[in-house]
């Protein structure tokens, strides 16, 4: 896939993750409500420059969600059948979610993404109507929704969702525990993790420098990224006990290509180069979703199946079959420690 869809926020962060995604994929999309196209100033200066430089494509949810009949019902069924949300809902109904509540973490989500889900979440104590076109949504609920939205929207637009931490991908897990998230990914979703494989500049001040570098080296960058993706997909054909050794061998055999790209970046103008770890949730997870779509008697929103069940319920069987050989989602992480929170997160981010 040559197109990735950033989530969870509207504005893509000014971070090393952004640099990596812009270098290695032909198209980087962000989920942007229709209102922002009419008023580009809402994007903020950094994001607006990326759009103007044609480095970011705006994927407008209102153009697609109306054509997914089960989009809202599937997510609400997931909420109603997952016991984790019951105590959160009870606290919300008592007014104990928010800055002065028991649960303080909330997120603003534009109704262009939620559609009538905003009202349904409000009825369950999980959201309140905010300013203008925004709903203030309880943080855990918001993160689950944005992962769900990016996966469904990415499928029908042929973008692969990509995020900058394991946290967003963790919502695919049937269990809610966040300890040893990386190990749980590998065990439950058979995620594939390749350490520090994508060279990225430590800092890029001018977005147009990325455009100029890609013009000169786009073939090498795309070829190496596809090489990594194909390797990850081929791992699915191996018995599990061989996977770790094969990843180690791949990393060793890729050293020359990694060094070549790093040298090109240094010779262009960037002296400090870091390396992003690449994580992919691929076809085994989709096998579960496909099974869900074929069994109308299965409780698609049960806590056992989790958010994948909601994705399977929202999508048509044809769409699921189309992406069986494509990754379900990516994470590209520059930070050395897993689950590290971004330092520029605000208390109430806008999605």
CA-based gyration radius: 20 Å
Shape: globular
Q: Can you tell me the residue ranges where pLDDT is under 50 for at least 5 consecutive residues?
A: 283-304, 335-347
Nearest-integer average pLDDT: 78
Secondary-structure element pattern, one letter each? EHEHHEHHEHHEEHEHHEHHHEHHHE
Q: Helix/strand-derived class?
A: alpha/beta
What's the helix count?
Answer: 16
Largest sheet: 7 strands, mixed
Strand content: 15-25%
Organism: Metabacillus rhizolycopersici
Protein name: DUF6236 family protein
What would you note in describing this structure?
The chain starts with a strand and ends in an 18-residue tail after the last strand. The longest helix has 28 residues, at 207-234. The protein has 351 residues and is of the alpha/beta class. It is built from 16 helices and 10 strands. The protein has helices at residues 16-24, 34-38, 45-52, 71-81, 85-93, 111-114, 117-123, 139-157, 166-169, 181-189, 207-234, 240-253, 255-268, 283-294, 307-314, 317-322, and strands at 3-6, 27-31, 57-59, 106-110, 127-129, 134-138, 160-163, 192-201, 273-281, 329-333. 48% of the residues lie in helices and 15% in strands. This is DUF6236 family protein. It comes from Metabacillus rhizolycopersici.
